[in-house]
Design brief:
mainly alpha, 8 helices, 2 strands, 2% strand, Rx N-terminal domain-containing protein, nucleotide-binding, plant defense, leucine-rich repeat
Length: 239
């Protein structure tokens, strides 16, 4: 069976941001909050099917097309949600009444604009939900036995680097290369035999330097990499 990698991560990331947007930190118009809550519920239902399709080795053309459309839709929606969160900013309960009022007035046009775009996203989600039903894709949920092979490299995504022998020296050296002042594109390769901690080193570097870069992405790929299907290839903002 297909390994569990980062292919379904776009939808999971989007759902996390929708949940955050619904929190009290972001002051939304009542209708906008209702539409975002609808998106979150509907996408969580669709996520079940997306994950099942991702675990299958063979899919017919219609199912594969729907899964790809959902991936692209997730990227588009996440880009929109990112912009919303930046434009609205977080509410601050410690601010005085006048400051809170001024902020709400300054963002009122942004709030109404967000409402319009959310309705457009809602229409796209409803369209894909209806297409899913027409194609009877929900049959995969009840009829497909799920045997999932876990990509062994994913353990390093959550492994603590502390205690690993001789990790500090190569980490500091690679960090120095990455942090050099230069506008040119950089590619740093980490290679070595199996079990030496290459993936763990890469993920720990990713955590340590996250504050210095606006956009980041971590993707687990196979040795036979197809760049067109790689999730990061569809995210030009990531570096």
């Amino acid at each position: 069976m297909a390994g569990v990698g980062a292919g379904t991560g776009a939808l999971s990331s989007l759902l996390g941001k929708l949940t955050t947007l619904l929190s009290d930190e972001y002051k939304l118009l009542k209708g906008v909050r209702k539409d975002i809550a609808f998106l979150e519920r509907e996408l969580r239902r669709m996520q079940i099917l997306v994950n099942i399709l991702a675990d299958m080795e063979k899919l017919d053309k219609l199912a594969k097309d729907w899964k790809g459309t959902m991936r692209d839709l997730s990227y588009d929606m996440e880009d929109c949600i990112d912009r919303f969160m930046v434009r609205l900013g977080k509410g601050d309960a410690k601010r005085g009444f006048m400051k809170r009022t001024v902020r709400r007035l300054n963002t009122i046009f942004a709030r109404h604009g967000i409402g319009t775009q959310i309705k457009e996203l809602k229409a796209r989600v409803v369209e894909e939900s209806e297409r899913r039903q027409r194609l009877n894709l929900d049959n995969f949920v009840t009829s497909t036995p799920r045997t999932v092979e876990i990509d062994p490299r994913l353990a390093a995504f959550y492994e603590e680097a502390e205690g690993l022998v001789a990790m500090d020296v190569p980490m500091n050296k690679v960090m120095a290369w990455l942090m050099e002042d230069s506008l040119e594109l950089k590619v740093v390769a980490i290679f070595g035999g199996g079990g030496l901690g290459k993936t763990t080193l890469a993920m720990e570097l990713n955590r340590k330097i996250k504050g210095y870069f606006e956009c980041r992405a971590s993707v687990s790929v196979s040795r036979t990499l197809d760049l067109e299907r790689c999730p990061i290839s569809n995210r030009p903002r990531c570096i």
